[in-house]
Amino acid sequence: LLEFYVLKLYQLSKAGKLCVPAMNVNDSVTKQKFDNLYCCRESILDGLKRTTDIMFGGKQVVVCGYGEVGKGCCTALKALGAIVCITEIDPICALQACMDGFRVVKLSEVIRQMDVVITCTGNKNVVTREQLDRMKNGCIVCNMGHSNTEIDVASLRSPELTWERVRSQVDHIIWPDGKRVVLLAEGRLLNLSCSTVPTFVLSITATTQALALIELFNAPEGRYKQDVYLLPKKMDEYVASLHLPNFDAHLTELTDEQAKYMGLNKNGPFKPNYYR
Amino acid sequence: LLEFYVLKLYQLSKAGKLCVPAMNVNDSVTKQKFDNLYCCRESILDGLKRTTDIMFGGKQVVVCGYGEVGKGCCTALKALGAIVCITEIDPICALQACMDGFRVVKLSEVIRQMDVVITCTGNKNVVTREQLDRMKNGCIVCNMGHSNTEIDVASLRSPELTWERVRSQVDHIIWPDGKRVVLLAEGRLLNLSCSTVPTFVLSITATTQALALIELFNAPEGRYKQDVYLLPKKMDEYVASLHLPNFDAHLTELTDEQAKYMGLNKNGPFKPNYYR
Amino acid sequence: LLEFYVLKLYQLSKAGKLCVPAMNVNDSVTKQKFDNLYCCRESILDGLKRTTDIMFGGKQVVVCGYGEVGKGCCTALKALGAIVCITEIDPICALQACMDGFRVVKLSEVIRQMDVVITCTGNKNVVTREQLDRMKNGCIVCNMGHSNTEIDVASLRSPELTWERVRSQVDHIIWPDGKRVVLLAEGRLLNLSCSTVPTFVLSITATTQALALIELFNAPEGRYKQDVYLLPKKMDEYVASLHLPNFDAHLTELTDEQAKYMGLNKNGPFKPNYYR
Amino acid sequence: LLEFYVLKLYQLSKAGKLCVPAMNVNDSVTKQKFDNLYCCRESILDGLKRTTDIMFGGKQVVVCGYGEVGKGCCTALKALGAIVCITEIDPICALQACMDGFRVVKLSEVIRQMDVVITCTGNKNVVTREQLDRMKNGCIVCNMGHSNTEIDVASLRSPELTWERVRSQVDHIIWPDGKRVVLLAEGRLLNLSCSTVPTFVLSITATTQALALIELFNAPEGRYKQDVYLLPKKMDEYVASLHLPNFDAHLTELTDEQAKYMGLNKNGPFKPNYYR
After folding, report:
1. What's the pLDDT at B31?
2. Are strands A180-184 and A140-143 parallel, antiparallel or unpaired?
3. pLDDT tens-digit series, residues D103-155
4. Contact flag B56-D42 (C-beta cutoff 8 Å)
5. What is the DSSP letter of C162?
6. Candidates B60, B62, B99, B115, partner chain C, best to mutate (most C CBs within 10 A)
7. Nearest to D47 by CA among D139, D165, D132, D141
8. Angle at which helices B39-52 and B68-79 pack, to 10 degrees?
9. Model ipTM?
C-alpha cells in the first residue's frame, strides 16, 4: 500500500511540486523485506485458510506480479504443494521467477485451469471481467496488492450476476449458468482484511518511521531539500540490529584489520546505499 | 570477485582520484542475481561433489556471509538436507538469515561441530589459523567469496603441518595428532576452480558489460562525469528481456490505461533505479 | 488418533481376544499420507496462526516425534523459515530427520531456547512438568499427536500456577515469577480443536472406511479370520484414482508389453502390499 | 536395480519355484530411503552437472515414475529452480505427486517442451522412438531407473541418425534436420555411470545385507521357509542406530511408563513391520 504513496511522492518531486523533504521509508531494506516479502509469505496462507479452509496441496495458483509481495506468496504456496505460475510486465522480475522455478504466463492463457488467482501488482484492472467470466467453478480470487482496483470488482456488480455472502469477507458471485467464483474481501487487501500482522513486523515498520521523522527533525539545515530520500543505510541497519536479539542471533564484529581492508567503519554502514 | 573492483572504484571516486566515468555493472540486478545468487546456488553443490563426493544430507555447514553468494549457497545446501548456520557482520543480512530459517552464530561458537565451512564475505582472514586448529577431523573448508585471503591459508604452510594432495584441487592438511582438514582449491574460489559456469550466466554477464561499454561510448558529452554509475535500469531490463525466450516465458504488456495509472512508459523502465 | 485404536486392535489380536475380523484402514497409504502427512502440513500452520498470530520466520521450534504427523509439521514450519529440531525414540525415523536437515536432540537439551514445542508421538508425558518449568517466557506448547496426555497438562493444574484464558483455546499458564507459557487447546489435538480439516481429506478417509466395510461385508466366508488386516492394495489404489480428477492429473497406462515385463495386471495393484 | 531382482524373487516364490529362504533387504526402510530416495536426490544433480554442465534454474523437466527414486529426483530439481512434472501409472503415487506440487501428465502431452527427460520406472520402453523424434533440439535424456531398457536406445541405432560422442558418457544423437538429443550413459543408470555413491550409503546397504545373511545363517530351523521375507524390523532399526552417531544425533529413550503405555519393548522394535 505504501508503495503507492511513495510513487506519488516521486511524481510530485519530479514535477517540482514537493514542498517539504520526504523520506521514503517504504524502500528501506528492513521495511521492504518484512512488510512485503516475509509478512506476505505468512499472511497469504493465513488469509486463504481463515476465509476458505482451502487445502493448498495440488492447487493450481496464478500470482499476478513477482515483486516482493508476489515472491512471498509464491514461496509459501509452492512450499505447501501448490502448483504456481506467475504473470509479470517487468523482464527482470520475470527472469527471477523463471530461475525460482515458476512458469511465466499471460493470465488469459491459464485462467480456465486455475483454482486460485492472486493479484500483487499495484496496478488496476489486472483481473478483468472477461477473465472472471472464463474462470472455472469454485475459483478463488483475491488481492494482496495495493488497492481494491486490481480486480475489476465493479464489473461484477451487474444485474446478471448474483452475490451471496457465505461468511464474513467471503462472497460467492454466481453466474447465470450456476458457476460460482469466490471473491475474498470484495477485492480489498487480503492480508489486512482477513489475516493478522505479526507485532514483530509492526515494530519494524514503526521503528523505521519514527527514526525517519527524528532524522528529518534533527537534520542540520540544508541536509535535505524538497526531494524524496531513502532512509540512510546506517538507520536501516540500526532498525535491524534492534530486532536481532529476538532471534538470539549473534553478530560477528570486524577486526580492525578487516575493517581497514574493506574500507568500512566497524559500526557500519556495511553496504552501499543501493544495496538491497 | 567483481565486487572487489567495484569497491575500489567507489573508493577512488570518493578520493577524487577517478579519471574516467565508470559503470558499475556488477550491481545491475540481472548480473547480481545470476552471477552471484543463482549461479552459486548451483556451483556450491557441484564444486563440493566433484572434489569430495560428500553426501549433503545431515551435514552441519556454516556459511560465512549472507550476501547474494551466501544466500545462494544456503538455499541449495538446506534444500538438500544440510543443517546450515551463518555468520554476518551486517545486521540487515543477519535478520534476513533469521527469517530464512538459519541460525546466526559466531564462527568460534560452532567451529568444533562443523562438517563444512564456506566463506562468502569478500573479506580477509575470516577463517583463522586458530579456528582451523579447532576444526574436527575431516572438516571441509572452501571459499566462494572474492580472493584467496578469506581463509588464512598462509598460516597452514607451517612446518608442524603436513600437506597431502589427494586429488586435483583437494589437499589434506594433517595436524601432528593425525587430524585432517580438507582444503579445496588452496582457498581460491571454489566456483571458478572446481565447478563450471553455465553459458547462460556468461551470456548475461557479457551482454551487460557490452551494453555498458556501448552506453559509455555513445553517451552525449556531459551525461557521465568522472564518477561510478549504476547501469541504467532500462538496459538492465533489456538484458533480461533478451534472455527470457530461453524459458518460454510470456511477458504481460501494460494497457494504455494501466501505464497511465502507474505513470510508466509501456516499454519500461518499470522500476525505480534503486529497486533490486 | 486412529493410530491408537489400531494399536489396541493389534494387541487384542495378539492376545487372541479379537472376536471379529478388523480392517486397519489407518495404515492404508492414502489415508496415512492425507490424514497425517499432508493434512498436518497445513493444519499446524493454520492452528498456530488462528490461536496465536505467531510469525513463523526465525522461530525456534522442537517437534517431538518424526512419524508422518511430525514430518508434515516439520516440512511446513521449515518452509516458512522456522528453525526446527526434532526428538525421536526410533533410530529409523531419527535417521530420516537427519537426512531431511533436522537436528535430532533430547528435549531437555533444547527446552530453554525454544519458542514453540509441538508433540506428535502418540505417547504420554512427552512434555513433563519439569520441562514446562524450564521453558522460556512466551513459549507456545501444543499437541498434534493422539490424545491430551502427550503434554502433562494435569501437572499444570496446581495451586502455584495461575491459568488465564486469553482467547478461545488459548491459556496462559503463569508461574510465580511472572513467566507465561502459552498452552493451546488445553493439550488436546490442535488440528481438530483449532484448525479445520479440508473436505478433500475427509472424502479420502470416508471413502477408505466405506470400502473397507463393504469388503468385510461382501467377502466370501473364510477370506478374513479374527485378525487385523491391511486394506487390500487394490482398494487403496481405487480410493486414490477416485480423487485424481480433482487435480486434473493424467495417469499413464501400461502397454501390454510393459505389463507383461513387470508381471503386473494393467489395472493394478501396482505395488506389493508392504509398499508405502 | 535391486528392485528388479526382488520382483523376480516374489514371482519365483509365487510360482512355488523358490528353493531357499530369501531376505528382501531392498525393501528395508533404511535401504529404501538411503539407496533410493536420499542418494538419488543428490546423484541426479551430480550426474547431470558432471556430464552436461546444465543450469537447473528454469529448466522444464519431466520425471517418469514417482517412486522413491523419482521422489528424490523431483525434490532436488524443484529445490534448484527447475519446473518439474511427472508421469505415473499408479494412482497412489500420482496423488502424492499432486500433493507435493507436481503436475501429473502423460509423456506425449509435454514431450515437445521439455529440456530434460528422466526415467525412474523400472519398466521398459518408457521413452519411445516416437517421443524421441518429437523432443526439441538440445533435450537431455537420461535414466535413473533399473536397466538400460527404460529409454528405447536400440531404436536410435538406426541409419538416418548420427551419433556423436562429445564427452565421456555423453552422446549427441543427430536427426537429419540437425536436431540434437543429448543421451547420457547410453541409457544406462546415470547414478552409477556418471555420479558417485557416498560411502555412507554404501555402508548402510552393506550392513543391511550382512545382517540379513547372518540372520539367515543363524536362524533356528523352521524360522524361514522357501519364501521371501522382509528384514526383521529390529535389524532395520539396528542398522539405523549404528549410523546415527555420524550426525551427532541424540536418541530419546522411552521411560518404563511410556513403554508400557505403548506396549513396546524399550529397545524396539518401535514400529509394526509394515511401517515405512
Report:
1. 85
2. parallel
3. 999 999 999 999 999 999 999 999 999 999 999 999 999 999 988 899 999 99
4. yes
5. E
6. B99
7. D141
8. 60
9. 0.92
